[in-house]
Specification:
The chain is α/β, with parallel strands linked by helices. Helix content is 40%, strand content 21%.
Length: 228
């Protein structure tokens, strides 16, 4: 799976972009702090980096120069400025592309695809619209989940929950993580809605012992999607 790193001091934008790109089949890591983002990049070795220009701690150009000390992953700058000088600064500091705000999420995804093809990283999300986890197959185009040939007949939210679980296997998923993925933002009052959607999904995952035991409750925190 292709790994994307998003660095932006706007937490809301980060979560919106993360949710969209994950639904397109990418593995997405985020950071609202430039220096932390650089450390994450060293750890995960991303295939592409999407980087905001205007940040208080370090601007995007400075972050790009730091990233270029250890990675040649393509970098896409996001900025509200569209002057020629800004674009030149971005490209000369190590950037590969430059998107002026406001932009569409569809455009962002296409720009990522193009850069990944240029660097021969793509199969991209086009590598397959099917995500297979043990005997469970998730069709990301049809928004269906099939278990051993049987359609689980998931509602929209149930499908979204399952897709998020399947793309974050064997990790602790908090109520906030899942709520943000589902609703775009999370408040503590959303916890009950998250739990209801997970409960509904669980009821449809009772066909088989293996399937039924994939979702594990992490007491008072959230869940873990168990993949062996």
């Amino acid at each position: 799976m292709v790994t994307i790193l998003l660095i932006d001091d706007d937490a809301e934008v980060l979560e919106i972009n993360k949710k969209y790109l994950e639904n397109e089949g990418f593995s997405v890591h985020i950071s609202s702090e430039p220096k932390k983002g650089i450390q994450i990049a060293k750890k995960i070795i991303p295939d592409c980096i999407v980087l905001d220009v205007m940040m208080p701690e370090m601007n995007g150009f400075q972050v790009s120069e730091a990233l270029r000390n250890f990675t040649d992953a393509p970098i896409i700058f996001l900025t509200g400025k569209d002057s020629e000088d800004d674009k030149i600064t971005g490209l000369t500091s190590g950037g590969d592309d430059y998107i002026v705000k406001p932009y569409s999420l569809r455009e962002l995804k296409v720009r990522i695809d193009v850069l990944l093809r240029r660097t021969q990283k793509a199969p991209v999300a086009q590598e397959s619209h099917l995500l297979t986890v043990q005997n469970l197959t998730i069709d990301k185009l049809a928004h269906k989940a099939i278990y051993k040939g049987t359609d689980l007949n998931l509602a929209k939210r149930e499908y979204e929950v399952l897709l998020y679980f399947a793309t974050h296997p064997n990790t602790e998923i908090t109520f906030a993580d899942l709520g943000t993925a589902l609703f775009g933002a999370y408040q503590e009052s959303d916890r009950s809605s998250v739990m209801v959607n997970v409960s509904r999904l669980r009821k449809k995952m009772t066909l088989d012992y293996e399937l039924e035991n994939m979702i594990e409750t992490v007491w008072s925190k959230g869940y873990r999607f168990i993949v062996k």
